[in-house]
Specification:
Shape: globular
Number of strands: 8
Largest sheet: 8 strands, mixed
Number of domains: 1
Strand order of the largest sheet: 3-2-1-4-5-6-7-8
Radius of gyration: 17 Å
Distance between the termini: 35 Å
Helix content: 40-55%
Mean pLDDT: 96
Structural class: alpha/beta
Number of helices: 8
Bound molecules: NADP nicotinamide-adenine-dinucleotide phosphate
CATH topology: Rossmann fold
Strand content: 5-15%
CATH class: Alpha Beta
Oligomer: single chain
Length: 277
């Protein structure tokens, strides 16, 4: 039985994966920002057959809350086999968090960065262990502007989202280099185009088209959750690290996601943004 922490567990891909992992008998630590949704998720995961279910509240846009989450995990668990950084959002308008960070980057990347860095000792102690990031095909064609990571100039929701998902892949690349030989792996994946709540944030005018696309072309959250479940548990990928997956297969990510210098630069920039030395 593995101990598996999933952020963004209260909906969509995270919820489906939590149920699948629960059905395999694992111990799930479900992280969400909404207590009612967390309670309902815990009930569903318990009913699926989980070996244990705990819930932890955290708004991932707040660095203070992510730090508190990490401290709670360190204090209460002697091991962590899988850390799945899955929480994500699509922000139509540019907003900043309480820490002054652009919200898409803060939730989709920086929160997972801070949580991972804060739990590295526990993960190393639990080796073999796995770190996952739910990235996206939308990283293709994206780029990071290191002089303006928060997109003060030229914000668009797609640009911010794509850049945050590119950051996920660059980070697992750098992390896998740092963790080489430790038995702790780091990978990112695209779950497919999945019919989840993330699309409901679209402008009112395109919502009917979105609803149709969801029904006709997108896969279900259960199908979307399968890659997370596979990467979290399958023995075939226990030693695979620094990769980007689509449909349970390693795929070459976009050119910008293969840039080692950018990966190192991003590491330094994120350390600065969260105040790590
Ligand atoms: N759907 C797709 O086609 C697709 C494709 C590629 C990648 N992805 C990625 O897959 C991941 C899961 O998304 P999804 O499609 O399953 O969408 P979803 O159903 O909207 O789920 C997103 C999850 O993230 C949580 N979340 C968002 N902002 C948060 C915050 N500030 N603090 C804490 N939790 C927060 C949500 O919590 P609440 O339940 O409280 O809202 C929810 O549990 C995301 O990283 C997304 O970018 C999705």
């Amino acid at each position: 039985m593995k101990t598996i922490l999933i952020t963004g567990a209260t909906s969509g891909i995270g919820l489906a994966a939590a149920r699948q992992l629960g059905a395999q008998g694992h111990h799930l630590i479900l992280v969400g920002r909404n207590p009612e949704k967390l309670a309902a998720t815990a009930e569903a995961v318990r009913a699926a057959g989980a070996g244990g279910v705990d819930t932890l509240e955290c708004d991932m846009s707040s660095q203070a809350q992510v730090r508190r989450l990490a401290k709670t995990v360190q204090a209460n668990y002697s091991r962590l086999d899988v850390l799945a950084n899955n929480a994500g959002a699509f922000h139509m308008r540019r907003t900043e968090t309480e820490d002054g960070v652009e919200a898409t980057f803060a939730v989709n990347h920086l929160a997972g960065f801070l949580l991972t860095e804060s739990l590295l000792d526990l993960l190393l102690h639990s080796s073999p262990a796995r770190i996952l990031f739910t990235s996206s095909v939308m990283h293709f064609g994206s780029r990071l502007d290191f002089d303006d990571l928060g997109l003060r100039e030229g914000y668009s929701p797609q640009r911010a989202y794509g850049a945050s998902k590119l950051a996920n892949i660059l980070y697992v690349r750098e992390l896998s280099r740092r963790l080489e030989g430790t038995g702790v792996t780091a990978n990112a994946f695209h779950p497919g185009a999945v019919a989840t709540n993330i699309w409901d944030n679209a402008p009112v005018i395109v919502r009917p088209a979105m609803a149709l696309l969801k029904r006709i072309f997108m896969i279900t959250p259960e199908q979307g959750g399968e890659t997370l479940t596979y990467l979290a548990t399958d023995p075939l990928v226990v030693a695979v690290s620094g990769c980007y997956f689509q449909r349970n297969r390693v795929k070459t990510p976009g050119r910008a996601a293969q840039d080692d210098e950018a990966a190192r630069r991003l590491q330094r920039a994120c350390e600065e943004l969260v105040g790590l030395s």
